Amino acid sequence: MAKKKKITVAFPHMGNIYIAWSAALKKVGVTPFIPPYTSKKTLSLGTKHSPEAICLPYKLILGNFIEAIEGGADYVAMISSPGICRLGEYGSCIKNALTDLGYNTKYIELTLYDGIQGMYRFLREITGKNDPILFMRAIIIAMRKVFVMDDLDARLSYLRAREKVSGEAEKHFNKAVQYIMDANSNRALDKAKKLAFDELNKTQIDENKEVLHVDLTGEIYIVCDDFSNQNIVRELGKMGVEVRRSLTVSSFLKDAIIPKIFRKGETHLQRANRMAKPYLLRDIGGDSLECVSDVVYADQRGIDGIIHVSPFTCMPEIMSQNIFPAMRENCDIPILPLIMDEQTGKAGYLTRLEAFVDLMRRRKRKLAMGKNDEKPVELIN
Ligand code: SF4
């Protein structure tokens, strides 16, 4: 008798998130289909079939889906969420676009703000099973991988800013990622995590190097996705800057998925609600509340600068960028706003980064000369 073909499911890319969702799918017996990592080809495919003024993440996600379908995925899965911005419409728009293109591939949505229940429903639909223990195992390993990957990413940023040989930290990081990718159980993941950090820590660094510290905030997709932010963390690392991503998938999980009783300390959203006042009193969609509060948070910790990245036409982030000038009265920290779209050229963008780094360095020296004014740097990863 012919063996029943396993179904394959693809998600769109956003940084390293594929490591987590592919682990969950494998756990429930579904084959993950990882589309080619987002590239110029993905962008041009997505742009060709998108409304002109739609935001950059939509175009890239659509491009990922087209590449996944052309590569043979049986299902494409979209992470959706309600919201005041366009994200709430992404799902139906992408589904229509794929139908208009003549694709019959099954389309399925994972509603993140339904928390664990939403994930459970998704796994039940995709597998046709109803196995709570299996599904909980899948959710737990996926979430643990998200946390490990974010910790590794933060460590990479620390090492890259101090490495003696350019590119060495990233070489070890790529090997470390493979350990995490290959771990298929919680016990294996514990082992893999240790191996991954040991591997990354092989990087030779200059502990005494004077590095700058920058927080990276903005719309979460652009903050986490290195293709769409033009690998800003790497570029700054090469200039001797340690970057802390203010928005990460793990901080999102703490707010949206992990039940309150399992959380430790204040979450990003809780801090945002506290610190964004008096500049922004309520959620206006996207990540604007977090972004405004991130400026205050970075300033209070004495960080050298903050960079705000947002997609062209993103309404919530246009609002944040309009609030920043009013914040200067109380927050002395240098802020660099960067708007990304498919036209953003590398050379001009690098020039802006170099000028910003130069400004931060001069400011730091000036502050060091008038030592009393300098605030202590508290790094939280
Ligand atoms: S936050 Fe901005 S970029 Fe993201 S979906 Fe909403 S409008 Fe688009």
- Biggest sheet, spatial arrangement of strands: 2-1-3-4
Strand fraction: 5-15%
Element order: H for helix, E for strand: EHEHHEHEHHHHEHHEHHHEHEH
- Sum up the overall morphology in one term: globular
CATH topology of the largest domain: Rossmann fold
For the secondary structure, the number of strands is 8
Distinct small molecules: iron/sulfur cluster
How is the biggest beta sheet arranged? 4 strands, parallel
* Fraction in helix: 40-55%
Oligomer: single chain
Structural class assignment: alpha/beta
Uncertain segments are 376-381
Gap between N and C termini = 53 Å
CATH architecture of the largest domain: 3-Layer(aba) Sandwich
Which CATH class of the largest domain?
A: Alpha Beta
